[in-house]
Amino acid sequence: MFAISNATIYFQLLMMVSAMYMAMLCTNWGKTEVFNNGGRANFFEPNMTSYWLKIIAQWVTMSMYLLSLLMPILFPDREYN
After folding, report:
1. Domain span at residue 68?
2. In whole angstroms, what is the distance from residue 48 CA to residue 35 CA?
3. 12 in a domain, yes or no?
4. Whether the predicted model's global pTM rises above the 0.70 cut
5. Which tens digit of pLDDT belongs to each residue from 27-61?
6. Among 32, 57, 64, 77, which residue's beta carbon has the most beta carbons within 10 A?
C-alpha cells in the first residue's frame, strides 16, 4: 500500500486539533440553555472555561513563536534548514 511518513501523521493531527479549536472559537463553548429566565432562547452563553482555553492557547502560541526566534541564538551550532 502507500507509505505514510511520521511527518504526514503529525501534520494531520495538527490539522484536526486546529479544526477543533476553530469550532470552539465559533461556538464559544458556551452553555446550551434553550430558555433563560426572560423566556428568550440563549444558546451560547459565554463561560469561564472558553475564556481560559483561549488565553492558554494564546500563551502557548506566543511561547512557541518566541522559542522559534530564540532557538538559533541559544543553540548556534545547530543547523536550522
Report:
1. 21-72
2. 20
3. no
4. no
5. 666 555 555 556 565 555 666 777 788 788 889 98
6. 57
State the Cα angle at 22 between 4 and 59, rounded to 5°: 95
**Alpha-carbon gap, residue 24 to 20, rounded angstroms:** 6
C-alpha grid cell, residue 77: 551550532
What's the grid cell of residue 52? 481560559
Domain count, the chain: 1
Find how far residue 62's CA is from the centre of its chain. 12
Does 39 fall in a domain? Answer: yes
Residue 31 contacts residue 45 (beta carbons within 8 Å):
yes
Q: How far apart are CA 11 and CA 23, in angstroms?
A: 18
